[in-house]
Design goal:
about 260 residues, 2 domains, 8 strands, about 40% helix, globular
Length: about 260
């Protein structure tokens, strides 16, 4: 389940993409399997990176996968990359977890090339606000959400770095009611109703029926759980070649 729309990233063969806060690898693996680019997935959580590596392995072994994937553990406040390294940076569902999110944005600005694309997604304000109202535990768990962004707040903060906003959309409307229900039943994780809704979401993800695709498209502008903003850094840049492989590194080891 990806949140960022690859069609808005203006991807070209040989480009280098950073998936910052890659988690278990959903965007990084999607690009590995679908685009002729070099993807670097980085996260602070070693267990998530290890899971991403395991999930990516079948795609790495598949000779039809066009991309190259590197996975690593590192801190978004101190990225182990030279200035102007990446043609595209994705930071999806990350900034709401970080106290110094402005510091992360500054690092993203540093490593993205001139004319590079930056895509940021965070939980949309209203669906997230409902979750906070329904459950204190939802955002007080370790590693949980520490803020609710207003879209104009995040857009303004990134534009102040000099990046030009050019597109936005909402995503995952069918997931918003699931999280409301999960928050309402936080102390009843074995609820049959919650389990049934989860099975529905998994079925929708795997089968992608036309009805639910159309329903979510209609509902996204109102109930979309995530908001995605797209920016371009001024001026021009270059790209690097891509191959098919996977590696794991830690910050400071073969990452420049």
């Amino acid at each position: 389940m990806i949140t960022v729309d690859p069609q808005l990233l203006n991807l070209r063969p040989g480009q280098k993409v950073l998936d910052l806060g890659c988690g278990e690898g959903r965007h990084a693996i999607h690009l590995l399997a679908s685009e002729t680019v070099e993807v670097v997935g980085m996260d602070l959580d070693f267990d998530d990176v290890r899971t991403a590596r395991e999930r990516a392995q079948p795609f790495v072994e598949d000779t039809q996968s066009p991309g190259r994937l590197l996975l690593g553990v590192g801190d978004g406040l101190q990225l182990p990359f030279a200035d102007d390294t990446f043609d595209v940076v994705i930071c999806s569902e990350v900034l709401e977890h970080i106290h110094d999110y402005s510091g992360v944005l500054a690092e993203i600005d540093r490593v993205v090339k001139p004319a590079g694309i930056f895509a940021a997604s965070v939980p949309a304000y209203f669906p997230e606000w409902v979750c906070w109202k329904l459950s204190t535990e939802y955002h007080n768990v370790e590693g949980g959400h520490i803020r609710i962004f207003r879209e104009r707040q995040l857009r303004s903060r990134i534009e102040k770095l000099g990046h030009h906003y050019f597109a936005r959309h909402r995503a995952h409307a069918l997931h918003a009611p699931f999280w409301w229900l999960k928050c309402l039943l936080w102390n009843r994780p074995d609820s049959r109703l919650l389990a049934a809704y989860h099975r529905l979401l998994v079925w929708d993800l795997m089968q992608r029926p036309l009805f639910t695709r159309l329903l979510e498209k209609i509902l996204n502008p109102i109930l979309g759980k995530s908001v995605v903003l797209y920016f371009v850094k001024p001026a021009t840049g270059s790209a690097l070649p891509a191959n098919e492989s996977i590696d794991v590194f830690t910050a400071g080891e073969g990452a420049a």
